[in-house]
Protein: Diguanylate cyclase (GGDEF)-like protein/PAS domain S-box-containing protein
Amino acid sequence: QAKADGKGRARLFEPAMDAHLLFRKTFEADLRGALQRGEISVHYQPLVDTETRSICGYEALMRWQHPVRGWVSPAEFIPVAEDTGLIDALGEWVMRQALQEAARWPDHFTVAVNLSAVQFRSGALARTVISALAAAGIRPERLHLEITESVLLAASDQTLATLHQFKNLGVRIAMDDFGTGYSSLSNLRSFPFDTIKIDQSFVRDLSTGPEALSVVQLIISLGTSLGMETTAEGVETEAQYACLQALGCTHVQGYLFARPKPARELDHAASPPLPEDAAADGEPSKTS
Ligand code: C2E
Ligand code: MG
Ligand code: MG
Ligand code: MG
Structure:
């Protein structure tokens, strides 16, 4: 197509294509060796129970520290890992790592691990999870597997069978990023989820207008009536927290409480942010 535009443009265009391809190939090659070189790690973000305002578990989030580029966002490398099939090895490593780590936490704490749709393809996923649970000695009820609607979009019988296998084991299944994918409501019918995670885009817009508020209210009442827990993602302010709690949201996650951190920096007893922190966030009300 570039050639049809004329020779001048084609000459300009092709090196750019080459550069992009080269970048992509280098990126892939780097990612291929990242696990062996010890560049992959897991960070943990607390999950807070809105009834007690205390930490009740963590979500495991994969991290890649590239020797030259520094921290690479999962939003950038997970899709590449999916395209290249590297996600199977990376995903299994995170699963084993997170479950081993959870064995050191208070026994009632949950551990959430994200799964990509691609990981359901090999047919080995259930076996991997069972073996990782056994190796860590973790009760299946403590493990929450987070899947996005894309898993259900392409759901083969095998994917659904795997999900039911998890349920039968007692593992909990959460629908991540709810509201951002396709046909959200029919997806909720196709599988008995334990948790709905409200996408952070709705939480962010809570204060900007009535629309996001209505959507969040709807998702929470939907989840509640279906007997599911509802977790709001991306909670950054006390105002958002208060609103979500008032609406009956059961759990929250977000920078208000903590950013994802390496396991050694976790403090389970950390009292969640004090009301004073919230005051610092908003307008000072002492004067006037
Ligand atoms: P996610 O599962 O929806 O994770 C939530 C994302 O929101 C995380 O980004 C987290 O750091 C970020 N976050 C948490 N609280 C706040 C907040 O208050 N404000 C804002 N602005 N962001 C917040 P992260 O770690 O960059 O991960 C991005 C996505 O990458 C994840 O979204 C998940 O879909 C994927 N991902 C991460 N780790 C894994 C993994 O081990 N396996 C798979 N398959 N996907 C993963
Ligand atoms: Mg998640
Ligand atoms: Mg999410
Ligand atoms: Mg997400």
